[in-house]
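# nightly structure sweep
# worker-07 picked up a monomer target from the shared queue
# config: single-sequence mode, recycle default, output format = structure tokens
# input follows
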Amino acid sequence: MKAKPATKAFDIQTKLTPYLYSNKELSEFEFKMYEREANSIPDYIQKNNTLGLLYGVQKNDALMELHFESALSCAFDLDILSNYAVLLNHCSLFKKQKQVLFDYREYLNTPALLKLLLNVVSIYLDSNMAEFICKKAVEIKCDGFFINAFCVRQMQILEVRKMTNCSDAQIALLVDICSSILKKYNQVCDSLELETVAGGHSVFGIATDSVDILVDMNFELADRVSEAPELDSCKLTAVFRPSKRVEL
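# output follows
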């Protein structure tokens, strides 16, 4: 979450970042203050970048997307793309996150951005994009650790896809259910793992110490899946766990 140093945009974004990573919304007074300050930023691109962050912290999906799209439509900026991708994940907008990162896939030249894309394509078991990420990691000369981790994940995607034999529509529906539950309980998926033990399933790592919230989320997930006849033949399952148990 950064703009150019020594600017009003940088100052505001620095102050907003702790709210983002602690998953806390601003008070009405704080929000109005930062909104007023952000709108006074003279640089159009950085104004929209900062407003995108502000509305993302408040989980106002529509305005967050509007401002990041406005910033990127003027000129491509890797930092802004990174901010946008992080905020889309923060708001559990996985479908949009995948689309945005796919659209800018040729510009993804950092391990962090490739990891963001890999996590979201893992949710959708997109083996073609996983293969692209592995090749891109080699192309941009990522550290061997990242290349190995990316390629291991690609193999996991292929394995889970083969084990579960679910259609793209079924996977998308399961992801939509998980997304809506994350939103309902105001939680953020900060890591994603695939497991093949006892059948393929996705593990959404949630940064919370509340066992009760995780229990409620998983019970609701089970209920929602059982109520979706389209998923009757889908062997892919999902589970919410504390993120400290989940690593890429």
